[in-house]
């Protein structure tokens, strides 16, 4: 009697397609730290603030003037590289949601440009505003782990920080 499902790379024939993709495994491991509704709400808000502030900090790093960019010199900076790398990574991990993250990063960039313009008219420095947003958001996100005495996965910290915007957006588009 022939098998109805072909086993692939050591996966059992009964596993459902797509249930054990790398992003599903990463989301599952990431979700272990945020179980309660309070933890999820805090994390959803704070992870977006952390991403916004990190982009703002990268935007605030002086970028050299490049003649070939012309009038776009103020818009192309170190944050541009972060955005391009993030969108590329998200597209490789989960193509459909990468477009939503791109829109989110576009909105964040607009907000950062407004803060940069405010700085140029005498407002506080962009790096300072970004730091003031980052510190309490990161602290609150870390403190939310104490709700259920969850230990942060320090070894996966960078990976989780990178995947957090995609993790938040996948809840918005989940059926």
Structure overview:
This protein has 175 residues and is mainly alpha-helical. The chain has one domain (23-173). The protein contains 6 helices and no strands. The chain has helices spanning 22-31, 37-60, 78-93, 95-120, 126-144, 157-173. Helix 2 (37-60) packs across helix 6. The chain is globular and about 50 Å long. Residues 1-18 have low confidence and may be disordered.
Brief sketch in words of this structure:
By secondary structure, the protein is mainly α. It is built from six helices and no strands.
Layout of strands and helices, then pairs:
Layout: H1 22-31, H2 37-60, H3 78-93, H4 95-120, H5 126-144, H6 157-173
Helix pairs in contact: 2-3, 2-4, 2-5, 2-6, 3-4, 4-6
Enumerate the spans where pLDDT stays under 50 for 5 or more consecutive residues.
Answer: 1-18
Number of helices: 6
* Separation, N- and C-terminal Cα atoms: 37 Å
Biggest pleated sheet = none
General shape: globular
Order of helices and strands: HHHHHH
Strand content range: under 5%
Cα-atom Rg, whole angstroms? Answer: 20 Å
Give the rounded overall mean pLDDT. 76
- Secondary structural class: mainly alpha
Name the helicity range: 55-70%
Number of beta-strand segments: 0
- As an assembly, this protein is single chain
Domain tally: 1
